[in-house]
Amino acid sequence: MREEMKGVKEEMINRSEESVANVKSIFEEVISVKDELREARKEIAALKPQFKFRSYEALAAADKLWFTDRNKAIAQYGHISSWNVSSIMSMRLLFGVSSEEEDERNHCNKDFNEGLSGWDTSNVTDMSFMFRKAESFNIDLSGWNVGNCTDMSVMFNFAKSFKSDLKEWNVGNVTDMPFMFLGAESFNSDCSRWSTGNCTNMYAMFSEFSLFNRDTIKNWDLSSIKGSVIGDTNHTKEQCKP
Asked: What domain of life does the native source organism fall in (predicted)?
């Protein structure tokens, strides 16, 4: 009798383990299918003609729709990675949040991490607050043309995951960079070759406690800069407002 009970128990354990394995396999298949569908949507969107934005207001409206109803945004404008922004001059607060918006929008903004590597930013002059508190954002922006940009204030402020290589960025026309990487604790790109002679405001550009190598800025022209380039997030984060 004991042997029979032992056999029944072992059989039940084996079946239980098989059931768990089957459920796990099904779950993994569902995840795989979801990933494939996501990629398929991107590929389909890429086949559509690029939607060209001709004003900041139109782009901002599409951006808002992306956060509130992504499927509708894709149907109307295509995937965000394919948007034609070549005529846009301002991208201020596009994926970032102002202090007034934090309660309303930050829950969406902090998860934003879409492929913007191919965006044509050659005409953009204002990138201030663009990725403020986009905590998950870490897309390669090394190929962006920022040669006409003059304002990068608070651009990656508290974008905690961002660590793209920006060493080739042409920032020669930028005049304002305060709080640009303050709170961007993962950022450690070599920016030693940046031309900063035209910049007049770099207040608290970097965090005191971050991965950033301060030796990077030793060769910068800081002759017109007032105040410390290295800031304390506890003292300055409340000043990062539009």
From this structure: Eukaryota
Q: How far apart are CA 14 and CA 124, in angstroms?
A: 63
Domain shared by 180 and 114, yes or no: yes
> pLDDT tier at 207 (50, 70, 90 boundaries)?
confident
Question: Cα(91)–Cα(94) distance, rounded to whole angstroms?
Answer: 5
Q: How far is CA 90 from CA 33, 73, 126, in A?
A: 38, 20, 5
For residue 61, the enclosing domain spans 49-88
Question: H or E element: which one contains 88?
Answer: none
pTM: predicted TM-score of the whole model, two decimal places: 0.75
As a whole number of angstroms, the distance between CA 162 and CA 181 comes to: 9
Of 205, 223, 224, residue with least CA distance to 214: 205
The residues, any chain, with a CB within 8 Å of residue 149's CB and separated by 6 or more, are 121, 124, 125, 126, 127, 171, 173, 174
